Amino acid sequence: MELSVLNIKGEDTGRKVTLSDAVFGVEPNQHAMYLDVKQYLANQRQGTHKAKERNEVAGSTKKIKKQKGTGGARAGSIKAPHFVGGGRVFGPRPRNYSFKLNKKLKSVARLSALSLLARDNKVALVESFTFEAPKTKELRGILNNLQATGKTLLVASSIDANVLLSSRNLPKFKISSVNNINTYDLLNTEKLLLVEDSVNNLENLFSAK
Hints:
The chain has 2 domains: 2-29 and 100-207, Ribosomal protein L4/L1 (Ribosomal Protein L4, Chain: A, 3-Layer(aba) Sandwich), CATH 3.40.1370; 46-96, no CATH class. It is built from 7 helices and 6 strands; from the N terminus they run ββαααβαβαβαβα. It has helices at 21-24, 30-44, 103-119, 136-145, 161-166, 183-187, 198-207, and strands at 2-6, 12-18, 123-126, 152-156, 173-177, 191-195. α2 packs across α3 (103-119). This is Large ribosomal subunit protein uL4. It holds the Pfam family Ribosomal_L4. One of its GO terms (cellular component) is ribosome.
């Protein structure tokens, strides 16, 4: 697959880059992508949820009524779950939701996501750019020139500090380095912008796995 390199004005520079079929032309593995996204979302969870159970709520342990003769069920404590203010039965406790995945599976998932974007013509190449100072307006103008007005992911070999600062107020825009791309971000974008020098780094990254 061959793509033209665009400048920040959205114009063709005349240069073309051939994308490797080993990275952008593999058969997508749906299950691998599902597992990788599931792991990513699980790792975002803090797992700090907690509800008090019967032995943790404040309250008297005095027997609130006699055992027999009331016509109702037995009750030994006001802290029982069926009373207002009582403890919760099997409430949530702090836990770690993260789990491990095989490195090869994660690699297959990322290759599958990249190939899906390439197949749907959602990949564009842009020459390297930087700003002298953070300017959100300038970055928004560049994205408009590149017809990247929806959810956009910019992948670069190294992240320029001023470009990163310029993007903080753009809710649909995200920047990632080649080494930090993940399946969730790739599947959650409508346009993938690859900085020209990141293509070789991407191919080298996956060829080494």
